[in-house]
Design brief:
The chain has 2 domains: about 35 residues; about 210 residues, Orthogonal Bundle (MetI-like fold). The protein contains 10 helices and no strands.
């Protein structure tokens, strides 16, 4: 009951903050402190959501963006975890692959989009590739560091218990590195939604990023802000969903913020 009450209090406090900001936003916009066309009040933003929902644009754009983010995040994360396990534990792979990855890692993912469009065109492949490319690096570096820095005592204990081969990977190395991997995944999922927006600016005909861009061209700030809020909302919900899945699959793992 004590934990439930703390959780309820936290939700109430967060809800109060959001309501307070919305009220201030409405007042600032209504009294004309800033031009209403440039900074529409929340009520107009809500009206833009209704308008987009009635036209079918809202559902179309949400489905397109979430699909791209999900596929790009999953592909980038799976490849990054696999490569991170190799480079973190096998010196040969680390010597050959780590320098190349470290060379590519500082590149802004946005900078490769023109090249990706030349390679793959303006279809779905280029969008998913650019998202996967951006997600790969934070997940890889966290996996690599987590696997590399496993305490030697863990491995000694595994050998004492005659745990060998792939069993060590699944029963010792992967669980020990899991907190690092989760941190990388949480960073990766936020980057996935950033790249969804960026990738949809070029050659897209649907998606939340496309909606933001087209609303800016039409000078519809209410629709633009509505799409921005949706992007942030789905990014936050994706992080919550990821943590829920991790708690379900690995109930023994203590995540940050848990007691």
């Amino acid at each position: 009951m004590k934990r439930l009450s703390k959780g309820s209090l936290s939700i109430l406090q967060g809800g109060f903050t959001i309501v307070f900001i919305l009220v201030i936003w409405e007042i600032v916009s209504r009294v004309g402190i800033v031009p209403k066309p440039l900074f529409p009040p929340p009520t107009r933003v809500f009206g833009a959501w209704i308008e987009m929902a009635r036209s079918g644009e809202l559902l179309r754009d949400i489905q397109a963006s979430l699909w791209r983010a999900l596929i790009g995040f999953c592909l980038g994360s799976v490849i990054a975890i696999f490569v991170g396990l190799l480079t973190g534990r096998i010196k040969l792979f680390s010597n050959y692959l780590s320098p190349l990855i470290q060379l590519l890692r500082p590149l802004p993912p946005v900078a490769i989009i023109p090249l990706v469009i030349v390679w793959f065109g303006i279809g779905e492949v280029s969008k998913i590739f650019s998202i996967s490319f951006a997600v790969f690096f934070p997940v890889w570096i966290n996996t690599h560091v987590g696997v590399r820095d496993i305490p030697k005592t863990f491995l000694w204990s595994a050998h004492t218990l005659k745990i060998r081969g792939l069993a060590i990977l699944w029963k010792v190395i992967f669980p020990a590195a899991l907190p690092f991997i989760v941190a990388g995944l949480r960073t990766g999922i936020s980057i996935a939604f950033i790249m969804v927006f960026v990738s949809e600016l070029a050659g897209a005909s649907s998606g939340i990023g496309y909606q933001i861009y087209s609303s800016q061209l039409a000078y519809r700030m209410d629709r633009m802000i509505a799409a921005l809020v949706l992007l942030g909302l789905f990014g936050a919900l994706a992080d919550i969903g990821l943590l829920a899945i991790i708690r379900l699959v690995f109930p023994w793992l203590k995540l940050s913020g848990q007691k």
